[in-house]
Amino acid sequence: MDCEKLIFESREKYGETFSLYVFGQILTIVGKETTHEVLRKDQDFSFREGIKIQIPLHLIFKPATIPEKNDKIVKEHIAGKLKQLISRLQKNIIKAIDLHIGECVEPKIIHVRDPSKTFSEIIAIPIANIIVGEECYNNKEILEAFTDVSLSIIKMLFIPPVLSFIHPWLHQQLVTLPLRFGWNPFSKHKKAIIKHIKPVIKKRLYDKKRLGDAWVAPLDALQCYLDDPEITPDLDPNNVNYDYIASAIGRFIFSTMGTTNLGLTHALYDLAEKKQYRQELYQEAQEINKQYNGNELTSDDIARMVKLDSFVKESLRFSNGPIVGLLHKCISKSYYAFANGYQVPSGRIVYLNFVDTNNNEELQGQNPTEFDAYRHLKRNSSATKLERNFLVFGGGKHACPGRSFVINEIKMFLHKVMLKYDVRTDTEEIGPKRRYLGPFPAPLNVALVFENRKETVN
């Protein structure tokens, strides 16, 4: 009922590494000194196997059961070509803001239960454009898939594991039973995705055959699948593995939308609530806006948003993560021995203690439990940099490959919002203490108020 208290008191009583008996099984919690071992020892700890315990993605997005293919596309063709994608991202972020927030001559209130959905609808537009391409991203059913998939799947995290008191296997059977008998939160969206990408794929393959070397391939994730001979043999639209492509796109949606939506939502709430930083961040936005003269932002312009970058990183560190998370499964043959002498048997689930890392003065600097917008600017540490004191994007070989895409999108959104609106909460403050559902942050029960900015941007 009070996960934060449980973890804090256990850490005080038992030390940096300890185990708890929770819902019928023993879980091991590792703190700041041991976290890096779990993240870097790929041969001993598997995040892929660990996440299956919470969310059976291998069943939801079947047959796209090799997430490494998506990771490669993100790393090489999205994050790796971000400079070429900035213009499209920016155009669609502005389009989404105008559509879902619009002109606010009179204050526009985004009510208590709406923010997560509203911002999900906003980021769905630029993300869909990069994944499924220019031809069909703006379709209503496609955008609905990008908005709904992550939210519907994450609900599975909150199924009470009461059967685990008998045996954890029983809870796994309960969670996966509907999936094995045909029900799937992704099924409806999968059909819609296939319906809308089919004509796009047929035209692209036809144009490629007709034009040969003169054909210019679109820059999006969909084209990456079409370039894979295992998925699209002989450039024949009748032989395309549409089922695989749609399922892989579903994985993309789940991984990109959830992280970006949470990060953007919390950063906007922090911007609205923490008044002491607004003017300085706005001045930085103004200066950068003068440099590009109101035209399109470049990747260099975004890189110059150093104060905003630090603000976003602090927001992610401070409010976006669970108390414990990034569970890994020990896959050593018999057991794994940590450097501190503790051992865990093969099959043990290991959680990272975010509270231990985030609240440590040695790692975070002075007053680690207080929000300091420029904490990371003082350290010259960007929001995409992987460090022991920042676990939002994981670490090691399996760190989030799309983190630069996520951070750049959040920064562009906040930059445009600051130039156009004054944003505040409808109460004086969100609250002195964050609420949790188990180890997960509870939704913020505060409305946001948008008004057209009164200052003139020179």
UniProtKB/TrEMBL annotation:
Q: Which family does it belong to?
A: Belongs to the cytochrome P450 family.
Q: Which keywords fit this entry according to its UniProt record?
A: Heme, Iron, Metal-binding, Monooxygenase, Oxidoreductase
Domain of life, per UniProt, equals Eukaryota
**Name recorded for this polypeptide:** 24820_t:CDS:1
Name the SUPFAM superfamilies for this protein: Cytochrome P450
Q: What is a single Pfam family found in this protein's UniProt entry?
A: p450
Which metal ions or organic cofactors does this protein require, according to UniProt?
heme
Protein's organism: Gigaspora margarita
Classification from the root reads: Eukaryota, Fungi, Fungi incertae sedis, Mucoromycota, Glomeromycotina
- Kindly give the PROSITE patterns that the UniProt entry links to this protein: CYTOCHROME_P450
Please tell me whether the keyword Metal-binding is annotated for this protein. yes
Keyword Oxidoreductase attributed? yes
